[in-house]
Structure formats: structure tokens, C-alpha cells
Amino acid sequence: MADxxxxxxxxxxxxxxxxLKTTRKRVxxxxxxxxxxxxxxxxxxxxxxxxxxxEEEKSTLAGYTVKINxxxxxxxxxxxxxxxxxxxxHKLPADNVQVHFTERSFDLLxxxxxxxxxxxxxxxxxxxxxxxxxxxxxxxxxxxxMCRKKQEEKWDCLTQVEKESKEKEKAAYxxxxxxxxLMNLLKKMYAEGDDxxxxxxNKAWVESREKQSKGDTPMDI
Length: 221
Prior knowledge:
Elements: H1 2-21, H2 25-44, H3 51-60, E1 64-67, E2 72-75, E3 79-85, E4 97-102, E5 105-113, E6 116-122, E7 129-139, E8 142-149, H4 160-173, H5 178-192, H6 195-210
Parallel strand pairs: 1-6
Antiparallel strand pairs: 2-3, 3-8, 4-5, 5-6, 7-8
């Protein structure tokens, strides 16, 4: 921010020098307009922070940053509530726990908790939230993020990605042919299962096919 202010100040000084040299009214009017605009922009710049404050902020963001993946959540008609467990977070200054909300996302930043920074980002929330109505609360060893729903209704999940994943999974098994639905389920279990699960499915598959006529060809899983 200080760099931006310095650059604006340099522009202003150069315009002042040009004003001293120009003799054309039209050029002078243009330069005066630009001079006024830059002076207004400098005036609206936030004041530079004292060096000790800037250094303190820099130190709070120094160190290792941890991405938060574990959380719990529930909901009411009005709020989506996320519970993030962080030991001793309640001992931090309140300003060290920051949440930035948009209509479809939020970012959590916890600064300098036992020498580490913690972040969590949720993008593409399932439905819009109210930025003004959303907030965070600091509890013992926990941060509670409260997203105020724009419409009072139940959500099936937290994000659009989760919704799309569920719809794809449902479509895979939602078929008019029951055997095809079972086949899709077995394929999923086989793909996601450990070695023991795969051996069990293979054995069941072979035994099932042996009971059928020899002309049938087993389908690969």
C-alpha cells in the first residue's frame, strides 16, 4: 500500500511541474483535472501503518501454514454451521481469526496459533448465503463458522461438487435393469476395495458364473 501511495505522489509532483511549464489553456485544464483526481486518490488511500505494526503483522503470517481438512457441520433452517477444532484457538486475539465471506464461498484464516497459520477455503457452496448475516464465533478449542442462508431451506450437502458427485453416483445405479444396477455397484466396490475385497468379489463372480451355462461369458469387473 505504501508503494501505491509513493507512486501517486510521484505522479502528482510531475503534473505540478508540467503545470508550471504549460501555456495552453486546454492542456492546463486537462492537467488540473488529473491533478485533482490524483489528490483525491491519495486522500482516499488508507494511512500507512507504523513500522512496528507492519512488522508485527508480517510476523503473524510467518511460519508454516496448515490447510484444514477436518470439520463437522450441521444446519438449521437459517444457518449452515461448520465446526473446526483447533486447540487453544480461544487464547488468540480475536483479530487473529478472520473469515471472508462471499455469496457462494468463504475463507477462514487463523494466524499464529502456536507458531502456525491455519486456512480453510470453501468454494461453490450449494446455494447462496448472506454475506452480511454470516459470522464466526470463537469457542474453547473451536471456531464456529455460521453461513446465513439466503433462503430458509434444508441443504442436501455443502457444495455443488458434492451435489454433482451424488447425482452421478445415483445415475450409475438408477437403471431400469436391476442386474445392470447391481453390476455398477459391484464395479464400484471392486475399484474402491482393498485386495481382500477384490478377492471376495472375484470368487463370488466365478462361483456365480459356474452355475450358468458354459456358453455365457463373464463380464470383466
